[in-house]
């Protein structure tokens, strides 16, 4: 990557990391962070390998397939070196951390904009966009822990201060270390972007636990233990600090609104650059200043949008979910209202380039939303009605694209997440969740006047509603799980008891009284012993009683065996009686039954051949069955093996959709994986069981196209990823 990116400031300081000892309280953090990042990075590389393998399998030509396999080979060969380089660089940051302000200024100095776009290589721009988006997202998501760490590290390191802070764990430092490490890989930009995406997913997105641990270690060491952070104003202070430093920090924050705005608008700025490049490639550069054109923006544009339809064209404003998702060509609609606008000076109204890009971006976001299969159809229809309100939101506040905590963004994500379990067959009229989503959309359409606090209050109201509903469904789901675990364990217990007894009893022609006791009486005790084995550990003892009984019924002529028989029988009879009494086996005839058993044992002691070995041993049959099942569970088909791997990647809490043979479909959530029975239990939104499948059955359903795993990431995040990916491909 070209060093124009501000991310690579740290690369120029590679030689400045000395071997000097780090402060005592930092050494433990360094070791923990380096080890933790190493573990996370391994997961990222494993995911990259899987992604490249899947791309190779789906390649449209031999050349494309060879490209992905070559990239896989290159990464596998150099992977350990990259991991080692990354960890060593991170360790050097702790020895000599760069000052955050210095990095920030360098980044601003090298920022790529529309004016110098032509100076940046295609690959460099794509990589820079990905890196900047990654860093911006991490800073927003981990804002609190990062600010605390920066204050504490600046307190620990000599030469650091509030005016010149340091934080060796800052996202920009870690991303720089990774981009520096992967320079050794001879791969093309698409594979490099896959690497960055998985680094973001597995490493950067999981920084929270390492940041929290670092803060905890510093707090234990007495470094600013009473830290207070007020996220809305950006002010923070420590109880141990003096008032002057607090006022100075407050003054600094108030004097830097532009920096905060730049951070909040970073994602849109990157997309704006891609759109500018797309216009440049297509020869559609912005026209020079035309005296006959009057630029419209701000409140005037916002008021013009009031004439756009609000998404209630269903024929029934009381039921917004009727019909198909609403599609609005925002670009054409805005052009139409501009054409109808009369200006007092006679000039032709036009939009600023930035506003045009905002309209295009919202339009592209909703194009993704309307094509997103993971979004349930009824909720998709409702969210499609919000295109105009969301356009008004972003025209006033571009941080919608960068801040995951933006009220409108949080609400949209919450609506989509809550409605993922909806199926077309669900009864909407009587469902509280659907009614709530419907009422929220209706309230936005009727009441939104530009004040984003409406989204904030609605989101809080919706979260409280979800918490109540989730408590109910969680209790039902927990009972369902426990019931299924109990049922499956009982089923397994019965199958095991039947198999053990069948294997032993079928080897011999036992006397009728003995056979009756084992099959109709002792089997019940064995069943309970297996279920309670976790606590009482009596399963093996119950099996030993069966083996001892059969052994005692065999004729024994050797003196040592007869002596052993005399020692075993009293305890055997005592165990049998106690066990049969415990399961209430034919209590009125228990004495007679035990009397018959004693008679059979006595006959056996006299060496009477009253039991015989059967000619065919069922063990061989069972062995054949087990080997047959083993072959069945290990499909030779590579495609089937791939589907099995996809099944293994499904986690408890993931949603899937099943399609039935008759064309109907239903959505359900994986509630439990019961390993001992190879059973996957799925429940609906209310926590009730709807289906259970084995691992091989799920793989077969997936292979036939009758089961689809649903994407569960935040809706707007996925939409932004898709939009950026589309723009990259168009500007490549």
UniProtKB/TrEMBL annotation:
<dbReference type="Pfam" id="PF07793">
    <property type="entry name" value="DUF1631"/>
</dbReference>
<protein>
    <submittedName>
        <fullName>DUF1631 domain-containing protein</fullName>
    </submittedName>
</protein>
<feature type="compositionally biased region" description="Polar residues">
    <location>
        <begin position="233"/>
        <end position="243"/>
    </location>
</feature>
<feature type="region of interest" description="Disordered">
    <location>
        <begin position="230"/>
        <end position="263"/>
    </location>
</feature>
<feature type="compositionally biased region" description="Polar residues">
    <location>
        <begin position="251"/>
        <end position="263"/>
    </location>
</feature>
<dbReference type="InterPro" id="IPR012434">
    <property type="entry name" value="DUF1631"/>
</dbReference>
């Amino acid at each position: 990557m070209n060093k124009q990116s501000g991310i690579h400031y740290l690369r120029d300081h590679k030689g400045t990391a000395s071997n000097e000892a780090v402060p005592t309280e930092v050494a433990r953090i360094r070791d923990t962070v380096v080890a933790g990042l190493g573990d996370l990075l391994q997961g990222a590389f494993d995911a990259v390998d899987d992604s490249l393998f899947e791309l190779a399998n789906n390649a449209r030509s031999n050349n494309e397939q060879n490209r992905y396999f070559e990239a896989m080979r290159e990464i596998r060969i150099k992977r350990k070196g990259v991991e080692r380089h990354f960890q060593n660089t991170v360790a050097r940051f702790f020895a000599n951390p760069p000052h955050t302000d210095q990095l920030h200024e360098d980044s601003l100095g090298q920022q790529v904009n529309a004016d110098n776009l032509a100076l940046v290589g295609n690959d460099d721009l794509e990589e820079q966009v990905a890196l900047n988006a990654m860093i911006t997202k991490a800073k927003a998501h981990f804002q609190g822990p990062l600010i605390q760490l920066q204050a504490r590290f600046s307190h620990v390191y000599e030469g650091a201060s509030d005016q010149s802070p340091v934080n060796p764990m800052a996202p920009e430092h870690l991303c720089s270390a990774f981009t520096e490490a992967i320079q050794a890989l001879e791969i093309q930009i698409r594979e490099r972007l896959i690497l960055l995406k998985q680094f973001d997913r597995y490493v950067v997105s999981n920084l929270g636990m390492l940041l929290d641990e670092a803060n905890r270690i510093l707090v234990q060491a007495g470094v600013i233990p009473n830290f207070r952070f007020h996220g809305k104003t950006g002010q923070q202070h420590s109880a141990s600090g003096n008032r002057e430093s607090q006022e100075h920090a407050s003054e600094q924050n108030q004097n830097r609104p532009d920096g905060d705005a730049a951070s909040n608008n970073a994602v849109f700025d990157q997309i704006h650059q891609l759109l500018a490049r797309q216009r440049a490639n297509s020869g559609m550069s912005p026209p020079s200043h035309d005296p006959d054109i009057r630029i419209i923006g701000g409140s005037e544009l916002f008021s013009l949008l009031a004439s756009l339809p609000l998404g209630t064209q269903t024929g029934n404003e009381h039921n917004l979910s009727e019909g198909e998702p609403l599609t609005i060509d925002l670009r054409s609609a805005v052009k139409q209202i501009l054409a109808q606008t009369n200006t007092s000076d006679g000039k032709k109204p036009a939009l600023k380039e930035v506003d045009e890009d905002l309209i295009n971006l919202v339009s592209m976001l909703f194009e993704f939303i309307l094509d997103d299969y993971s979004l349930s159809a009824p909720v998709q229809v409702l969210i499609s009605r919000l295109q105009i309100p969301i356009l008004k939101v972003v025209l006033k506040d571009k941080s919608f694209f960068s801040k995951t905590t933006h009220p409108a963004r949080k609400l949209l994500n919450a609506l989509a997440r809550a409605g993922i379990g909806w199926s077309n067959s669900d009864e909407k009229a009587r469902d509280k969740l659907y009614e709530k989503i419907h009422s929220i959309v209706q309230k936005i359409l009727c009441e939104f006047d530009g004040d984003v606090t409406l989204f904030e209050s609605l989101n809080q109201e919706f979260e409280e509603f979800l918490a109540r509903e989730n408590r109910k469904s969680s209790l039902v789901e927990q009972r369902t799980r426990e019931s299924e675990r109990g049922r499956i364990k009982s089923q397994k217990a019965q199958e095991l008891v039947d198999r053990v007894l069948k294997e032993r009893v079928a080897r011999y022609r036992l006397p009728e009284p003995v056979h009756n006791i084992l099959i109709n009486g002792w089997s019940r005790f064995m069943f309970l012993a297996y279920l309670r084995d976790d606590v009482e550990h009596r399963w093996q003892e119950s099996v030993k009683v069966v083996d001892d009984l059969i052994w005692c019924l065999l004729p024994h002529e050797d003196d040592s065996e007869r002596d052993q028989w005399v020692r075993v029988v009293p305890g055997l009879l005592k165990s049998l009686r106690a066990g049969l009494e415990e399961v209430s086996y034919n209590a009125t005839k228990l004495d007679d039954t035990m009397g018959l058993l004693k008679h059979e044992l006595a006959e056996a002691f006299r060496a009477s051949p009253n039991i015989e070995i059967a000619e065919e041993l069922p063990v061989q049959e069972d062995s054949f069955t087990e080997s047959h099942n083993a072959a069945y569970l290990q499909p030779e088909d590579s495609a089937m093996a791939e589907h099995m791997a996809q099944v293994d990647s499904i986690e408890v809490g993931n949603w899937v959709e099943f399609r039935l043979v008759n064309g109907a479909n239903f959505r359900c959530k994986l509630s439990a994986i019961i390993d001992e029975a190879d059973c996957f239990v799925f429940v609906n939104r209310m926590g009730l069981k709807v289906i259970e499948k084995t691992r091989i059955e799920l793989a077969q359903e997936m292979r036939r196209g009758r089961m689809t795993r649903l994407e569960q990431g935040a809706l707007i995040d996925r939409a932004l990823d898709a939009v950026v990916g589309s723009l990259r491909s168009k500007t490549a």
